[in-house]
Design goal:
The chain has about 70 residues and is α+β, with helices and mostly antiparallel strands. The protein has one domain (about 10-65). Helix content is about 35%, strand content about 35%. It is built from one helix and three strands. The protein has one helix at about 40-65; strands at about 10-20, 25-30, 35-40. A three-stranded antiparallel beta sheet has the order 1-2-3. β1 and β2 form a beta hairpin.
């Protein structure tokens, strides 16, 4: 997303994923009841997974340093 773009922020209540043909669909429900579906390729999810792993690894490292 470009710096000027804005996005609505939702707090995740639950999400489920399913492989459909050549893509993955992620059904999302927000705490306010909003529901939507994300359609992504395996390559897009690989990038997202890498980003999430980096974030979680940094959180783990910070927690260990604080002990």
């Amino acid at each position: 997303m470009a710096a000027k773009d804005t996005a609505t922020t939702y707090t995740l209540k639950q999400a489920i994923a399913a492989k459909v043909d050549d893509h993955v669909e992620i059904a999302v429900e927000a705490e306010d009841g909003t529901r939507f579906k994300i359609v992504a390729t395996a390559e897009q999810l690989d990038v997202l997974t890498g980003d999430l792993e980096s974030i979680l690894d940094a959180d783990d490292a910070a927690a260990e340093a604080a002990e």
